[in-house]
């Protein structure tokens, strides 16, 4: 089928989409912004769009007046851990994005890292420890062992989650305890890993029916040196370069890692993989997101624009593809 034929079918077949945005995670506001962006883009293409949060009315809405397609833009728990996708499967409603089992795998950072390491991709050395073990084994002794094993600097973050909530760089041994306290405010287990220095990249992957394709890599340069929540979602706090200011060979290698992650994790439609290019040019995998941010400061829309993809048409293609899956 030609691109023109696919476009014609999209116009003819798709007219009612439900965008799920909000949720109860700390990433609620980001999700609301992403949902607003998707809804407005689809409405400009004369598609009827409803926006709903995840609440006690959701199942009734899906059962009594099912949309043709659900476009979930829920970030964090329930949105990316597969729970809501499982509900959509039970309701028999087509949706954009990865299936529940793939979401669960990608959302659990240590499991995703182990899978990519098995594929020959470099990942940071690290350890994943629950909050309880620091109490049971003695925090001071355990902190000493972490530092002895991993060295400095370190990076601490929840083993599940996104938007850099609870994520803290650790430059000296005295900062590790505070970083763990911050981490445990957002999750029960901490991923403590070596902090890889280098150029931070976000590589988005898009599949609108012809197989996954890596979009142009986005280079991320936060003004404070750390790509935290404020740097991600406050205009002007981070400088982005798309395409990234790297040689073609390095960008190709980064794109291949993102495609490997997308395939190995069993994802579909769209994803975003976060990477570091170390000073020797080696690509280091950090994590893959199954519901990348779609806000004005998010890297997925930037990459799509750099690839010459109009955001509204892209959203419609993804929704139409989900509709055809049935």
Automatic annotation (TrEMBL):
<dbReference type="Pfam" id="PF01820">
    <property type="entry name" value="Dala_Dala_lig_N"/>
</dbReference>
<feature type="domain" description="ATP-grasp">
    <location>
        <begin position="113"/>
        <end position="319"/>
    </location>
</feature>
<keyword id="KW-0436">Ligase</keyword>
<comment type="similarity">
    <text>Belongs to the D-alanine--D-alanine ligase family.</text>
</comment>
<keyword id="KW-0133">Cell shape</keyword>
<keyword id="KW-0573">Peptidoglycan synthesis</keyword>
<comment type="function">
    <text>Cell wall formation.</text>
</comment>
<dbReference type="InterPro" id="IPR011127">
    <property type="entry name" value="Dala_Dala_lig_N"/>
</dbReference>
<comment type="pathway">
    <text>Cell wall biogenesis; peptidoglycan biosynthesis.</text>
</comment>
<dbReference type="InterPro" id="IPR013815">
    <property type="entry name" value="ATP_grasp_subdomain_1"/>
</dbReference>
<dbReference type="InterPro" id="IPR011761">
    <property type="entry name" value="ATP-grasp"/>
</dbReference>
<dbReference type="InterPro" id="IPR011095">
    <property type="entry name" value="Dala_Dala_lig_C"/>
</dbReference>
<keyword id="KW-0963">Cytoplasm</keyword>
<keyword id="KW-0547">Nucleotide-binding</keyword>
<dbReference type="InterPro" id="IPR005905">
    <property type="entry name" value="D_ala_D_ala"/>
</dbReference>
<dbReference type="GO" id="GO:0008716">
    <property type="term" value="F:D-alanine-D-alanine ligase activity"/>
</dbReference>
<keyword id="KW-0961">Cell wall biogenesis/degradation</keyword>
<protein>
    <recommendedName>
        <fullName>D-alanine--D-alanine ligase</fullName>
        <ecNumber>6.3.2.4</ecNumber>
    </recommendedName>
</protein>
<dbReference type="InterPro" id="IPR016185">
    <property type="entry name" value="PreATP-grasp_dom_sf"/>
</dbReference>
<dbReference type="Pfam" id="PF07478">
    <property type="entry name" value="Dala_Dala_lig_C"/>
</dbReference>
<keyword id="KW-0067">ATP-binding</keyword>
């Amino acid at each position: 089928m030609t691109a023109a034929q696919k476009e014609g079918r999209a116009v003819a077949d798709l007219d009612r989409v439900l965008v799920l945005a909000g949720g109860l995670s700390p990433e609620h506001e980001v999700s609301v912004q992403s949902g607003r962006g998707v809804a407005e883009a689809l409405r400009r293409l004369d598609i009827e769009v409803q926006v709903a949060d995840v609440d006690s009315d959701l199942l009734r809405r899906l059962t009594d007046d099912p949309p043709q397609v659900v476009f979930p833009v829920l970030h964090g728990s329930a949105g990316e851990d597969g729970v809501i996708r499982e509900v959509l499967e039970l309701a028999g409603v087509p949706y954009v994005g990865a299936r529940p089992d793939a979401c669960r795998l990608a959302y659990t950072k240590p499991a995703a890292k182990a899978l990519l390491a098995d594929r020959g991709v470099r990942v940071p050395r690290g350890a994943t420890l629950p909050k309880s073990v620091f109490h049971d084994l003695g925090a001071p002794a355990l902190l000493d062992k972490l530092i002895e094993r991993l060295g400095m600097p370190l990076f601490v973050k929840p083993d599940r989650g996104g938007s850099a909530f609870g994520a803290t760089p650790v430059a000296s041994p005295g900062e590790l305890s505070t970083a763990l306290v911050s981490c445990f405010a957002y999750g029960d287990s901490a991923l403590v890993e070596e902090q890889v220095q280098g150029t931070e990249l976000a590589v988005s992957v898009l599949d609108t029916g012809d197989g996954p394709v890596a979009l142009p890599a986005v280079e991320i340069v936060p003004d404070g040196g750390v790509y935290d929540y404020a740097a991600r979602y406050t205009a002007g706090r981070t400088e982005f370069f798309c395409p990234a200011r790297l040689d073609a060979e390095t960008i190709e290698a980064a794109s291949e890692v993102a495609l490997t992650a997308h395939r190995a994790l069993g994802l579909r439609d769209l994803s975003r993989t976060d990477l570091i290019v170390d000073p020797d040019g080696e690509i280091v995998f950090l994590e893959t997101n199954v519901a990348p941010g779609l806000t004005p400061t998010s890297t997925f829309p930037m990459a799509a624009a750099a690839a010459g993809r109009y955001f509204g048409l892209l959203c419609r293609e993804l929704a139409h593809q989900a509709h055809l899956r049935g």
